[in-house]
Amino acid sequence: MKVDFYELGTVDNQKLKFGVVAAYSKGKLVLVRHKDRNTWEMPGGHREDGEDINDAGRRELVEETGAKDFSIKPNCEYSVTRDGVSSYGRLFYSEISSFDELPHLEIAEVKLFTEVPKELTYPEIIPRLLHHTHLTIL
């Protein structure tokens, strides 16, 4: 598996299928646990048909964390290549100052971390996305 990063606007918008958010609150990393898994992941998901990729990132953040007051901005675009097939997405950075009730959708739990946990849904991808975001926001 290979993860590559690209400057904003350099990947064809139609190729961007995912909006994933590196979210932080009070200096801690915000990760979510899907109701069907015991592992942690970054808030994010598939872009809906006809949805702007920036709107997808914002929607996924709210749906998966219950974020109420927050800032969110695009960080970069990325690709994940497995078995010669690439998937593209936009990576966002968010600071959440307050949370509302978690919508009753697919997320069972939201947790703030001081370190990246070992129990990750996508252990080959998440650390790379977080590392890239950290490097570019400093």
Provide structural commentary.
The chain is α+β, with helices and mostly antiparallel strands. It has one domain: Nucleoside Triphosphate Pyrophosphohydrolase (Alpha-Beta Complex), CATH 3.90.79. Helices cover 18% and strands 46% of the residues. It has helices spanning 53-65, 126-137; strands spanning 2-6, 16-25, 28-34, 44-46, 67-82, 85-99, 107-113. Strands 1, 2, 3, 4, 5, 6 and 7 form a 7-stranded mixed sheet that branches. A hairpin with a 2-residue loop joins strand 5 (67-82) and strand 6. The longest helix is centred in the middle third of the chain and has 13 residues, at 53-65. The radius of gyration is 14 Å and the shape is globular.
CATH homologous superfamily placement: Nucleoside Triphosphate Pyrophosphohydrolase
How would a textbook summarize the main sheet?
A: 7 strands, mixed
Please, what is the average pLDDT? Answer: 94
Order of helix and strand elements from N to C terminus: EEEEHEEEH
- For the record, the CATH architecture stands as Alpha-Beta Complex
So how many helices? 2
Count of discrete domains: 1
Helical content band:
10-25%
Reported by name, the CATH topology is Nucleoside Triphosphate Pyrophosphohydrolase
Which ranges are low-confidence, i.e. pLDDT below 50, for 5 or more consecutive residues? Answer: none
